[in-house]
Amino acid sequence: MRCLTSIANNPLRLVKDLLFSPCNVEHSGGPAVPVTTAPAVSQLQYEGFEVSPYEPGNPREELEEVHSIGNAGSGTLHAPIFDIGRVQYDFPAPLVECVVSSDVLAMGFSSNMLVLIELSHADQVVKIRIPRKPTEMTMHRLFMDPSGRHIVITSIQGENWYLYRGWKEPRRLKGFKMVIESIAWNKPALLSASHSTSTREILIGARNGTIYEAVLDAEEDFFKSQERYLQAVFSLPERHPITGIKFDFFPPADHKKALVIATTASRIYQFVGTPDRKYDDGGRVFTGLFNGYRDTAPKILELPGTLQQSELRFYTPNPDQALSLPRTMAWMTGPGIYHGLLSFDFQSEDFIDAAELLPYPSLVPNVDPEIPRSIALTEFHIILLYHDRIAGICNLDDQLKYEEALPLRPGEEVRGVASDPVRRTYWAFTDQSLFELVVGNEDRDVWKIYLEKQQFDTALKYAKTAAQRDHVLSAQANAYFSDGRFFQAAQCYAQCSTSFEEVALKFLDAGERDALRSYLISRLERTRKGDLTQRMMLATWLVEFYLSKCNELDDIVASESVSHDVDNLQTEQAILEDDLRQFFDTYKYNLDRATMYELIQGHGRTDMYLYYASAIGDYQCVIEHWILEEDWLKALEVINRQSDLELYYRFGPVLMRQAPKETVDSWLRQTSLDPLRLIPSILQLQHTPRDPLTPNQAIRYLNHLVFEQHNTSPTVHNLLITFLVSPTSPSTPDAIEDDGPLLRFLSTAPCDPVTGKPFYDLDYALRLCKNAGRTQPCVHIYSKMGLWENSVDLALHKGDLELAKINADMPEDDRPLRKKLWLKIARYVVQDKKDIKTAMRFLENTDLLKIEDILPFFPDFVVIDDFKEEIAHALEGYSNHIETLKDEMMEATQTAESIKQDIVALKNRFVTIDASEQCSVKEYLPASSLRKIIALQNKLTMDKTSLDGHPALPLGQPNGTSVTQPPPRTLLSANFGAIPNPLQNGARAANLLGRGVLTAGDRLRDLIVPDALAALVTAPAWMPGMGSSHRLVTGADSGGEKVRAELEDILASSCPLCESVVVGLDVPFVKDGEVDTTWAL
Predict the structure, then answer these.
(1) What distance in Å separates the CA atoms of residue 965 and residue 384, rounded to the nearest whole number?
(2) Alpha carbons 974 and 927: distance in angstroms, whole number
(3) Integer Cα distance of 855 and 169 in angstroms
(4) Rounded Cα gap, residues 338 and 244, in angstroms
(5) Comparing C-alpha atoms, which of 255, 198, 252 is closest to residue 228?
(6) How many CA atoms lie within 13 A of 882 on its CB side?
(7) How far is CA 388 from CA 21, 242, 369, 408, 410, in A?
């Protein structure tokens, strides 16, 4: 079992030496035969352009090199087609039958024991015994479905058993009372439903020549047996055993038809029909198909012979797919092996196509061929199992390719060959041994066979090395060339190693220049990019071919256009020209520019000349061509299509002169141009005659630069002024020019934000305008320069009074200058125009001038009637003004007198203070504090005025007066006493009130004036209501009044609360000489 596992894991373990017989057959063991080596492929010689058919870095080349090197080292290319090895397993009894499917191997022994081996777990062997003694039942055949889940065991006695995977023992099929020779399984249903327990519909070929339809189901059902149904659907007329049977539905996706193939020892039957539509498990599928052959015979092929046994084998390309269909079949008969291809065509009557009868080979010289015991079918070979050896015949050429003797023990009998239809493994078995036939390098020589059949495409498919492909392509190219298929030959020659010179001479001798052109293109595509010289030579030669062919077609079209329809020729010519353009685009870097120009011009192909120049980016050459042709618009089109700015500058002058509008349009689209480098082109329009009704394109472009692109170059601005000043038509320089565009530019031209001046040169502009006689622009420029007098003088000189007025009002901030300018205008109106009425109306335009300002300009003898009203109005105005001034003087005099009176009255001003008012400094009110009212309305006690207020006395103030604090006094209101009711005794009340006021005045004076000066203060000589009381004023009294006045001036001159703050405003925080570090950082 350890060996069996090794075989399953490594099926190529038994590779042996490869020997060649005269018939190129592989042998291993057996009788000695003469051995000769196969002729080797001739060494390929590479000449000229002979290089690798692929470009460097091409994955195909790398893979081939790796593949060739690896194969050379391991011998894979020369590995044997097949190899056979014995499986080391001791049989418990003689082996009767062996089947394999989906890697499940089942062997039936004569002791009625089944051995099941799952090849993926070869060490796990399952043994199941059929509950019958060998004397009671002799095992005949085993049948396993493609999924490996269902096994049917049949016996010679007609007793049949059914085994499902996982069962411990098989179950007898009581209704199956026949010897089963073959079973056709429902492959699509079994492979698509991996967990189904049913076999679905199967066909059974019995020994009695009857075909049965049946369904087996391993599902446990008490009311049903495993035999769902069994029904005979067709019986062969000759009642021979049905040795092989198979059915397929087609098309695979939609089972519209079914093909059933059945064989006996000498006949093969084909049944085709529509299967019954099945709606449940109990439905029948093939009943209707076979009912169609009750009155009609099926397709029958008979190969009579003496062979009593027969086998039917199929090969499916994708066996593990449920819907795959078989491709080839082989049927072992007495005369030989009948094999062919299966064609599932609805319209076909015979579904076996290209059928051949392969006679059995003679393995031993001078001995009749032996009939094999069993056969198997691979992709390219038919395996023949003989009594002592195994052989393989290629089904492509019917040649023996493989033969190997079986290492049999004495008395060992060969039984047959079992093949796995899903995993493609092959097993030969005897009654004592099991051999695995390993399919190795089966397709090693297939390419040679297809090459001999001249099936070149298929041969290329199976060619494994570059040498093999080269051999096939060379043979294919020669075959195409011999058949006159020159274009196909050219493609093949380009891929093989045939000498470049040989191929070129072949096509030239045959006169096939078109085919040679195709060959050159293919070789150029496969030439390495590093071979610059070879690529350039090939590309240049190809261009010459293209040009020659184009000229040839031109000549043919020109000669046959009158008598024949040349549409096909013109179409061919258009296609050829498109091919040449595409060639230029693809291989432009492999062509020499000078050589191409000379070659194309030599053939007179201007269109191709221009296309090639455009393809390589030589736009200068293209533009020069169109300029020589005077096709200015096409030249501009080429310029617009490219990105080289130098071409704009190079061809700008000629294009600006010939197509100014289109040229400017081109410039406007290209915003990267340098305007200064375009000035030579712009100047082409300065002296060029043009239609006055058409706009100047130079002005248009310069306006775009200034106002759209915000160009600040003085050169551009000056150039624009030059064109605006220049006459519209140089031929008529004296024509009246429109100053509107120039004035608009001068008015709206952008200015330097730093200097506030325009970017153009004012002096230059003024000089141009003066030379051109442009008055209004000159006046505007004078105003821009701030020369207002010049601008007004020039306007008046030209007689433009309105322009002079406008400029006279421009210096708004300089009134004297404005008046001066207006005086100039007035003098011009009065003296030069001598129009008094206009002068009088002129005064209405400004408020700066009066009639008296312009009277000096009037002549000495002038009639006053024209302006007497204006003089009268002026005089009335002066009179009114004088009256106004007199009123203002009177009002000023009265105001002065009032101020004098107020000053005198201020000396005797006093304020009455309520006794309940508090001091402005002290929050408490002493009962006897004397107060003083300062002009700032701050109320201070005498304590404060004498103590706190003293430091605030002004410097230089006389302080020799001694001011002391008087003793506490009573309130002023106490002097009034009780006043009688004035309504009852008015005279008495008035006398009391007068005396109270006098007493209160003295008391108030005591509060204000210190005691030292109290004696100097006397009561007024007269008080209202006091009667006549006269006091004489002595000298002492007048001195006291003077002192009191000085004291009051001192006290009232400043407020103690505010003066200290005001006085210290100019005092620095840090005095001179002090060092204060608190302000340091």
Answers:
(1) 159
(2) 12
(3) 151
(4) 13
(5) 198
(6) 6
(7) 19, 27, 14, 7, 11
- CB neighbourhood size of 251 (10 A): 12
Rg of the chain (C-alpha set): 67
CA 340 – CA 354 distance, rounded (Å): 5
- To 10 degrees, what angle do helices 606-615 and 619-628 make? 150
Q: What are phi and psi of 778, to 5 degrees?
A: -65, -45
Residue 354, number of CB atoms within 10 A of its CB? 9
- Helices 714-725 + 740-748 axis angle, to 10: 160
pTM: 0.59
For residue 240, give the amino acid letter: H
* Angle between helix 788-797 and 801-808 (nearest 10): 170
Both tokens assigned to 227 = 């035999």
- CA-wise closest residue to 303 among 280, 332, 283, 327: 332
Rounded to the nearest 10 degrees, the angle between the axes of helix 532-560 and helix 567-587 is: 160
Mean pLDDT by 10 residues, the chain (1081 residues): 39 29 41 36 40 44 42 59 92 96 96 95 92 94 96 96 94 94 95 88 96 93 84 93 95 89 96 75 79 92 90 95 94 95 89 94 87 95 95 93 93 96 96 94 92 94 93 95 94 93 94 93 91 94 93 86 78 91 93 94 92 93 94 94 93 92 93 92 82 82 92 91 76 59 86 87 87 82 78 74 72 72 71 61 63 58 58 70 85 88 78 66 49 49 44 43 43 47 47 51 51 44 42 52 74 63 66 67 56
Structure tokens at 740: 């509107």
Element (H, E) at 882: helix 868-906
Q: Which residues pair with 214 in a beta bridge?
A: 202, 230
Residue 428's DSSP bridge partners are 417, 435
Read off the DSSP letter of residue 1065.
G
The Cα–Cα gap between 964 and 946 comes to 8
- For residue 8 the two structure tokens come to 């399953």
